[in-house]
Amino acid sequence: MAKLTIDGVEYEVKDGRTILQALDDLGLLMNGVDVPHYCWHPKLTIDGSCRLCQVEVEGFPKLQIGCNTPVKDGMVVHTKSERVKHAREGVMEFLLLNHPLDCPICDQAGECKLQDYAFEYGVKHARTEEPRRALKKNVDLGPTIKFDQERCILCRRCVRFCREVPKTGELAVFNRGDHSVIETVPGMQLDNPYSMNVADICPVGALTTKDFRFKIRVWFLEEAPGICTGCSNGCNVYLGVANNKVYRYVPRRNDSVNDTWICDVGRMTYEEIGAPDRLKLPAVRSDSGVLEAVPFAKAIDAAAARLRSLVERKGAGVLAAVASAHASNEDLLVLARFLDAYGIRHSGVTVRRGDSDDLLVKAEKAANAEGARTLGFEEAGPLAKQIAGGGIDGLIVLGHDLLDPAYLGGERTLAKLDTVIVLDTHVSALERVAHVILPVRHAAEKDATYVNHAGRVQRSWPVVEPSFEAYADGEVISRLGAALGLPGFDGKFDVREVSRSLGAAAAAFRGIDLESVGEQGIPLAGKG
Amino acid sequence: MGLKVPFVTGYLTEHFGDDAFPTLEGYRAKGGYEAARKALGSMTPDEVIELMKTAGLQGRGGAGFVTGLKWSFMPKKGDKPRYIACNADESEPGSFKDRILLERGAHQMLEGILIGAWAMQAEKTFIYVRGEYAHPAACVQRAIDECYAAGILGANCLGTGFRHDVVLTRGAGAYICGEETGLLESLEGKKGQPRKKPPFPAEYGAFGMPTTVNNVETFSHVPHIVAKGADWFRGFGTEKSPGTTIFGVSGHVARPGLFELPLGTRLDEIVFQHAGGVPNGRKVKGVIPGGMSMPILPAGQLDVAMANEFLRERKTMLGTGGIMVMDDTTCMVRASCVITYFFRDESCGQCTQCREGTGWLHKLVTRIERGAGSIEDIEILADVTSKMEGQTICAFADAAAWPVQGMLRHFREDFELHVEHKKCPFPESFEL
Ligand SMILES: Cc1cc2nc3c(=O)[nH]c(=O)nc-3n(C[C@H](O)[C@H](O)[C@H](O)COP(=O)(O)O)c2cc1C
Ligand code: SF4
Ligand code: SF4
Ligand code: SF4
Ligand code: FES
Hints:
The complex is a heterodimer of chains A (528) and B (432). Chain A is α+β, with helices and mostly antiparallel strands and 528 residues long.
C-alpha cells in the first residue's frame, strides 16, 4: 500500500498503480476527484496521448499525466491548480480547433465528453479563422458501426479495443500529424462479435451504432441497471428507457462479470423486450380446437380444471414440468414448491446451447441455467425422451426451449398430450399444441435474481411495464396453485419474500436475496 | 562523395582527409581499436562508466545528457539481454555532422559502440540510419563486415571472449524516428511514434529489453576518451561542456560546411571567421544555433559561447550544433512558415497539443505571411506555443514551439509589419 495525497486529502492505494488507476480503484475518478481524460480507459492499455489528464505532482517540474504516472508512497498531487487548468484549457481548445460544429445534429450530443469537458473546463470555441478539417462523414466501417472522421479526436480507444479485446485489430491510425485519421485496415471491415463496444468507448460522436443512430436523443433516455439475458454470462447493462420502451443496452461496468463490454448479440437482445412477437394474450383452446383469448383469471382456472381432470383420471404421475433457464430463481422456487405440493415427480430444465468464446459469450443461452441447477432442476434431456416416448400426459412448460433440437426438435410429439400449459414471453410453435397459454414477464419487467455461469447472483429490476397483462412466472404458478387448492398456495406472490427463502431451499443461497445482491451481484456461497 | 572534409578538424575528424581511414586497415594504422582493446582487456565495465562520467561527455544528439550517467542507468543484473541503439537518424534540418562521421569515420563510431557495449555489458547494437543516408549506410555496413571478418565484433570481440553483435537498420525518412523511443518503435518495425515514459528505454527499450540510445557523434568521442583519458578530454571545451563538436554551418555564409571546434567557441567566431561571414555585402539578421528546433538569435547576440550553459541564458540551446545563418533580406515570417510547415508535416500526431498545435501554428503564420493576419493572431501564436511546450510524450512539441517563440522574441516587428502592410514587406526575401 502507498499513501497518496490528492488535493489535500490522503488516500491509501494499492502498489503499482498509476494516479488514474488508483483513483479508479477508489471509485473517485470523475466522482469526487475530477481528472478529465480521453485516451485512458480502465480496461485498455495506457496510451498517454490525449494529454488531458495532466496533474501537478510535487517534486516534478513539469505537469504529469495522471494515467501513466505511477503512484509513489507519499506522492502529493494537485488537480485544481492554475497550471493544470491552463493545460486542460489548452488541450480542449486544440481539440475543438478542428471539430465540426455538429452538436445539433450529432447523435452523441448529451453523452459527449467533448461537449461535457468543453463546458466544464471553460472553452467554448477555438480562436481560429482557419477552415476546419474536412474529412469523411457517415463512413460504413462494417455491419454495425458508422464513423464520422471529422468528429474523431484520435484518442485511439477504438484502435486499442480492437487489438486488445476481440484481438481482431481492424482499426488503425493512418498518416500522422494533423492529417492523422482512423481507418479500417485495407481489406478489412470492423466486424467482430464485440464491435459495437467501440461506440460506447468513443468519447465523442465519431463512432455510432447503426442500430441506435438517430433513434432518440440520449437526454430523453433513463439509464436503468439490469442484466443481459442472452447467455449465462449475465453481462451487466444499462437499459436505455424512454416512454416505457427500451431503446438500447449499453455495458454497465462489473469487473467480476463483463468489465466494460458486452457482445453484439447480447446487446441486440434488448429488441426482445418490446418485440412484436411477445406473447400478449392469455388464451385457452376451445372444444372446437381453436385458441381463444380469455381474461387471465379465466385462463388460470381453465389450466387448473384441465390439470385436475387429468390427475383425477390418471394421477399426478403422468404430469411433468419443464422449467426454463430463462426463469428467475424466485420463479423456479415457486415452481419447485408447486411440484412438491402437487406431487409432480417428473421435471427438468431446458437450456438452449450455442457458440461460446473465451471472452464473455457462454454456451448456455439463458441467464439462469446455474440457478435452476442450484435449485435442484435437472437437465431436461431425459425428460424430453420420456415425453417423446409417450410416458407423459400433462405438461407445464416454461418458455419454449423444449422445442430446441437438443430436446424435442419441434412441437409435433406434444400434439398427442392431454394437457399442455405454456408460460412464455414470446410466441413459438408451442402455441399450436398448447391448451392454455399464459403470458409472463421479461427480466426487464420484474424484480428477480439469476445465477450466472460462475455462480454469481445478479438481479433485474422492472424498468418497463408490459403494455398487456403479464406476470412473473412465479406469480402465475402461485395463482395456479391456489386455483388447484394446493397447500401453501394462496395465489399471492411476494417476490421479496420468496427471494428471502431461497437460502432455505438451497444452502448456496444462504444470506442472498433480491435486496442483498445489489447492482454488482454477489457470489453463491462457495463460489466467491 | 558529396561532403568534403571539414574545414576545421579536431581529434574526431583529424584523419577524415585520408582515403584509407574509412577502411579497417587505414583505421588501424592510426591506432584504431587500441582503445577498445584497452577497455575490454584491462578495464572493468564500471571503470569505463566511471571514466565516462569523469570525462563529462554530453550526448551530441540534441539533448546533451551526460553519457556516463545514461550508461549507469542500465540495469546491472537480470536475465534480459541488454541492447544499444546508435542514433544515426540525423534528420534535424540544419544538421549534417553525423553523415561525415558515418562516411569517413565508421570504425571510430564502431569502436565507441564496442566500448559502450562492454561498459553496459550489452549483447547487441542496432545502428539506425536515416532512410535517405544510403551511402553513409553502405559505409557503415562495410565497416561492420570488416569487423566481423577481423574478429573485432561477433562471438569473441578482439579475442577477449566478449560477445557483441552489430546490426544496421534503415529508417524510412521520418524526423520523429530520431527521437529515441520513436526510433525504437521504428526499429521494431512499427509506426514511428514515441513511447510514453515510464517505462524508460533503460528498463524497456528495443523489443522490450533494456536499451541505451546514443548519437553517432557521442560514440565517436568514446575511443578518444578511453585512449587519452578524462583530463585530456576536459582540455577541450568549457568546464561544463567538455570536448569538441562538429558544427555544421549552412545558409547565408561564404563557406558553408563542417567545423570541428571545442564547445564554447563563440558563435560569431564560427559564423564570421570559420564560415567566412555573410556574402554579397549583406548583414546577418539572425542565426539558429543548433538545428531548426532551437530558438533563433538576432545579429546582436552572436557573442555567445556555443555551450548549453551560455546559450540557455539567451533562451536557446546547442541542439545538434547545426548553425543556420540568415541575412538581412530574410523575412522571418517566411522563415517561420518553413519551420512550422516542417513540424506540422513531421509530427507523429499522437499528442493533442502537438498534432493540433503544429497545424495551428503553421496556419497562423501562413495567414500572417499572406497579409491576412491580425495583431491578435500574433498573440494567439505566442499563446499556442505556451500550450504546446512541456506537456507531450516527446520533446517534438517543444521543438516545434520554441523556434516560433524565438522568432516572436526577437523578430516580432517582422510579424507586425505584415499585419500593418497587409502583405509581406520583404520583397527580397527567399521565395516560399
Ligand atoms: C523530435 C526529435 C528528433 C530527434 N532526432 C534525433 C536524431 O536525428 N539524432 C539523434 O542522435 N538524436 C535525435 N534526437 C534526440 C534523441 O531523442 C536522443 O536524445 C539522443 O539520440 C540520445 O543520444 P545522446 O545522449 O548521445 O545525445 C531527437 C529528439 C527529438 C525530440
Ligand atoms: S473514433 Fe472515437 S474512439 Fe476512435 S479514436 Fe476517434 S474519438 Fe477515439
Ligand atoms: S456475453 Fe452473454 S450476457 Fe454478455 S452480452 Fe453477450 S449474450 Fe449477453
Ligand atoms: S510530441 Fe508530437 S511527435 Fe512527440 S509523441 Fe507527441 S505527437 Fe508525437
Ligand atoms: S488520459 Fe492520460 S493522456 Fe489521455
